[in-house]
Amino acid sequence: MRTMGLDVGSKTVGVAISDAFGWTAQGLETIKINEEEKQFGFDRIGEIIKEHEVSKIVVGFPKNMNGTVGPRGEASQFYGRELERLFGLPVVLWDERLTTMAAERVLLEADVSRKKRKQVIDKMAAVMILQGFLNSQN
């Protein structure tokens, strides 16, 4: 059974999946969503859950630097509740402060072009969220 990691934004959801042992996270894809139009990508998430035999979902939880929860954090809480309701799997909210900035730094250091960074940043952030969770479990 694998764990899925999600970096939820207003326009995309980065998806990562663990290996079968729960040791490493690999980037899978970026799902286009439209929060304003209530299109959240849950159909695709369901396909991934079945395809990879996911037993747990980790959703990035962007808190403010002072620990309070702002609008993006509330959106992640909503997304997590909907995942639990729709798929009946345990959902863990994982503090993701600075994750996207760290992913951006890794891609910059690897000299990835701006266009390519834009395409992979959410998937990379999902990997960092999931790997942080997996490291805490092992």
UniProtKB/TrEMBL annotation:
A Pfam short name: RuvX
Keyword Hydrolase: yes
Signal peptide: none
GO molecular function: hydrolase activity, acting on ester bonds; nuclease activity
Entry EC number(s): 3.1.-.-
UniProt main location, coarse: cytoplasm
SUPFAM superfamilies hit by this protein: Ribonuclease H-like (SSF53098)
SMART domains: YqgFc
Localization annotation: Cytoplasm
Entry keywords, A to Z: Cytoplasm, Hydrolase, Nuclease, Ribosome biogenesis
Any one Gene Ontology BP term: rRNA 5'-end processing
EC top class, as a word: hydrolase
GO cellular component, one term: cytosol
CDD domains the UniProt entry points to: YqgF (cd16964)
Domain YqgF/RNase H-like: 1-103
Role summary: Could be a nuclease involved in processing of the 5'-end of pre-16S rRNA.
Family: Belongs to the YqgF HJR family.
Protein name, as recorded: Putative pre-16S rRNA nuclease
Organism: Bacillus mesophilum
Lineage, top ranks: Bacteria, Bacillati, Bacillota, Bacilli, Bacillales
